[in-house]
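Subject: complex prediction, re-run

Hi both,

The earlier run crashed halfway through, so I resubmitted it with identical inputs.
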Amino acid sequence: MSLLEITDLSMSICGLEILKRVSLNVGPGEIVAVTGESGSGKSMTALAVMQLLPDLARCCGAVRLDGTDLLAATEPELCAIRGRSVGMVFQEPTTALNPVRTIGDQVAETVLVHGAMRPEQARERARDVLDRVGLPADRFAMSRYPHELSGGQRQRVVIAMAIALQPKMLIADEPTTALDVTTQAQILDLLKGLVADYGMGLLMITHDLAVVADMADRIVVMRNGEVVESGATRDLLAGMRHPYTRMLFEASDHQVALPEPPAPQPLLQVRGAVRDYRLPRTKLFADPGHFRAVDDVSFALNRGERLGLVGESGCGKSTLTRAILGLEPVQSGQILLDGEPVFSGRRPNLSVRRKMQVVFQDPFGSFNPRHRVDRLITEPFHLLDTPPKGAARRDAIAAALSAVGLKPGDATRYIHEFSGGQRQRIAIARALIVRPELILFDEAVSALDVSVRARILDLLAELCRTYDLTYLFISHDLSVVRSVTDRVLVMQAGRIVEQGETRAVFDAPKHPYTRSLIAAAPRLPDLASLRRTPDHV
Amino acid sequence: MLRYSIKRLMSLAISLAVASLVIFLVIEVAPGDPASYMLGINAQPDTVAALRAELGLDVSRPVRYLAWVGGMLSGDFGTSYTYRTPVAGMIGDRLWVSLPLALLALMLSTLIAFPAGIYAAARRGRPGDVSVMGATQLGIAVPNFWFAMMLVLIFAVDLRWFRAGGFAGWDKGFWVAMHSLTLPAISLALPQAAILTRVMRSALLDILGEDFMRTARAKGLSRRQTLWRHGVRNALIPVLTIIGLQFSFLLAGSIIIEQVFNLPGLGRLVFQSISSRDLIVVESVVMLLVFAVIVVNFLVDLAYAAVDPRLRART
Amino acid sequence: MTRSLILGAVLSSLVVLAALTSFVWTPYDHAAMNIPDKLQPPGAAHWFGTDHFGRDLFSMIMVGARTSIAVALVAVGIGMGLGVPLGLMAAARKGGWIDEVIMRGNDLVFAFPSLVIAILITAVLGAGAVNAIIAIGIFNIPVFARITRGAALSLWEREFILAARVAGKSDARISAEHILPNVTNLLIVQGTIQFSLGILAEAGLSYVGLGAQPPTPSWGRMLADAQTMVSFAPHLALIPGLAIIVTVLGLNLMGDGLRDWLDPRLRVARA
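This time it finished cleanly. Structure:
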C-alpha cells in the first residue's frame, strides 16, 4: 500500500484555484518527482502535504500519510507528524537555517521538539545524522554556525534536520535548484542513498527534467494546478501521451541552428586580465589579503562569433563580465574592443561603450519600474553623439520591438504589464537599438521556464541570421551554452582552464574540471532510443 | 570578538574627540564675554581682565580647548562662572537624579514593549494585535510632558498617591527616592514603550517571513515555539538599535520632564546655566550627554556581536 | 488599510485647515485679553474656554497650529533638502571617502539628541522659533541621509542601474533619473513621520522656553502657562495637549496608510 496518498486535492486562496483535483501516491522506498513550469502548483502540492500553506488557503480532498488524513488533523497532531513522520527540504539553503544558532542545535531541535530523546542523546543523534549527510565531526563541529558553511553544506544540514528522526516520508522542494551542478550531483546522490538506506518515500519537486529523468521511479507532470500526466519514468518518457509533456521535454533539450560564423577577425581582445578584491583584514595591522577573482585571463572574440563562458558560481565570470563592460578596471592586462580599451576611468568612453550592450538575468530587476518601455529601450541612445529624435526615434523603437517579436504599440506600456519572457525580449530590444558590435548575455535565460527559454533561444538564432550578431553568452547551464555557441571558454577559480570549439569541448573535454562539470550535469535520456526499445512489453 | 571590540573602541574615541571639538567651537562663538557678564555693565576694564585671567579665558583657543579636554579626562570640569564651585561636583549631584530616572524609564519601557510587541506579532491582524497597535499609535502621539501633567493631575492632585514634584533625595532612603521618581519615569517610559512595541512587532513580523521559520515549522515546532525559539533572538538586532537610541532620548528627554516635576537633575542645571550665561556648565553637561550617547552606542555594537555570530566573525 | 490613510488625512487636514483659516478668521482676537472672562470652561461663547488672561483658547489653538506646522514643515524641508542629496551621494560613492565622511558626520549629529542641539543653539543664539527650526532641522538631516542611502544602496545593486551604467550615464545622472524616483515613496512616508516628530519637538522646546517666544502663540507654551493652573482649570492643559495628539496621530496614521498604499508589493496583492 502507499505511504502517501493524495486524492483529488483541490486548494484555493481567496477564491483563486491553485490546485485542481491533484492525485498522486508515493510508496515506501520510492522516488516520485513532481515537475512542471512556474505556476503549475508543484510547490503548493508539497506544502499541502506538510500543511504549511498560506493562512488563507482552503483545501478539500484527502492527503493520507500512512492512513492518517492530514487535512482532518488538528494543528497539535500535525506538529507531532511534521519532522517525525514527514521531513522537508527546501530550495534555498542560504536562508533555510537560523543564522544565530549553531548547526548542532538546529539538528538536535528536531529530536528534542518531539520529546524523542533526552538532550544528551539528542545531541549524539544530531552528530550521527550530520556524519551521515557527509559533514564529518573533524571538519564540521556541532558548534559551527550556518554562515561558516557553503551552500551545499548548508543544504546537507537542512537534510540532516529533516531526517534526524528517520521519517517515513521526505519531501524535497527544488532541493538543488540553487546549487552548482557538481554540488547538485552530490546532493542528489545523498538523497538517493538515504531513500535506499532508510526505505523512505521521497516526493521531489523540481523543474529540471534531466534531474527528474535521472532520479525518479515515477513522474507526475503538472500544469496550472492540474496533473496532466503521470506514470513510471520509463513508460512516461517512452509514451509521452500528453502534448504538454512532449513540449516540455522537447523545450528542455531545445537545439537551435546557428548560421556559420564569418572568417575570424578579432573584435574583443582580453589579454592577461587580472582583477583583485581586497579581503577584510584578519589582523588589525596586518596587510589585508587579496582575493583574485579574475586570474590572468586571455581570449579573443571574433566578429560574428558566438562565444560561451561557463563556470560555477564564484568562478569569476560576473567580475569578468563587468570588466569587459568597462564598469570596473582590471589591475593588470588589457581589455580591448576594436583595438580601444573598454575602461577609461570614471568618465566612460562613449565611442567604445556604444559598440557593446548587455542583457541581464533577472527579467524583473532589469528595468526601472517607473519608466515606459519606449524610455527603457532608448536608454542606450545616451551613448550616441546625435540620438535620433521625433519620427526617427519612433521608427527605431518600433524596429527594435518588432525585431524581438513584440508590437510597436507596446512602447507606451509599463514594464509590470509584461511576463518574464516578454521582459527578456524587451531587454534584448534595448541591447539591439544602438546596433552594437557585441552583446553580452549574462545568464540571460537562466531565470526563465523551459518553454519560454526555448522561444528566446529561437529568437537569438533568428537575430544571428538577420543582424550578424556577435555575442558572449555567459551561463552556468551547459546544455544551453552547447546549443547557442560556436566556441566555449570554461572558467574555474578565476582562470580559463579550457577553450575550444563548443562541440569538441563537450564531446572530448581535456581538462579534468571540464570533465567533472560535464559528468555532473544531469542529462535527458535519448528519447528516441527509449521509444525504440520499450522493455515493458 | 576582541578585534571587533578594539575597532569599535577606536571609533568611539574618535567620535568623542570630534564631538568635544564641535561643542567647544559652538560655545566659543557664543556672543558675550562671561567675565563682563558676571561683573555687570559697570565693571572696570582691569577688573574684567583680572577675572578673565582667573577664569583662564586669556589664553589662546587651542590651549583652552586642550586644557578643557585634559581637565575632563582627569575629572576636572572647571569652575562654574556663577557659583564659583567645581562643575564636576554640580554635575555629579544632578547625575544622581537624571541617570536613575533614565535607567528606570528604559527598564519600564522595555518591560512593557517586549511582551506587548511579541503578543501583537503572534496575533497579527487579530483583535489583540489591532488594539495593541491602536494603543501604540496613541502612545506615540502623546507628548511626554503633557502626559506627565495629566499624571500629576490624577495621581498627585486628585488621588494624592504621589507628590506633585520635587525630589526627596537618596539620603531619605532608596524607596522614598524611587517613589518621587515613579511618575517622571512612567511619563518618560510610556511613549518610548509605544515606539519600542512597534519596532519589536515589525521586527518579528519580518522574521516570521523568513525561510528558516518555515524550516522550523517543518521540524514540528508549533507557531508559538517557532516564534520564541527562532524569532525573538533574530528580532533583537533592530530592537537593540532602538533601545540604544532611546537611552539618549531618555537622558535628553528627562530634561523636559524634570521641568514638569521640578526635579533637581541635569536639565534644570542646564536651563539655569543658560539664563545666567554660565557657559562652562552648559558645555560640560552637553559633553556629558553626548558622551553617554556615544558610549551607549558602543555597548549596543557589542551587544549586536553577542546576539549575531556573523558579526563576531566579520572584521 | 486605506482606512488609516483616510482617517489620518482627515485629522491632518482639519489641523491644516484651522491653521489656514486663522489667517483670515478666528472667533476672537487670539491676543485680546479680557480679564473678567478669565478661566472660563469650554462653553457656547468660548468653545474651548479662556485662559487666565481671558483670551479665547480656540483662537489661540488655531493660531498655534500655524506655528507648529510652520516649524515642523521647514524643519522637514531642511532635513530633506540637505539629507537626501547627501544620502544619494554617499550611496553613489559607496565605500569611498565621501561616503565615509558623510556617514561619520551623520553619526556625529546623531550623538546630539535634538534637545541637546536646541540647548546649544539657544546658548549661542538665544531662544526663538527660528532656532527651534534649525535645531529640529539639523537633527532631520542624518535621518533623511541615512534612509536615502540605505534605499539607494539596494537600488544600486539592481540590474537596471547596471544597464544605465552600460548606457554610459554618470553617477549623478543615474542618481537623479533612476534612484531618486524610486525612493520618493519612502521619503514621503518618512517625511510624514518626521513632520509629526517635529510637531512634538516644537511643543517640547516651546514648553521649556526654547521655542517660539511670546507673543507668537504656541501649543507648547500654552501648556507651560497652564501648568500652575492645572488643578483648577484642567481644560487649559487638556485642550492644547489634545490638539497636539490629534495632529501627531493624524500625521502618523497618514504615514502608515501611505506606506501600505505606496508599497508596490502590497499593491500587487491588491490588484
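Chain B touches chain C through 46 residues (CB under 8 Å).

- K.
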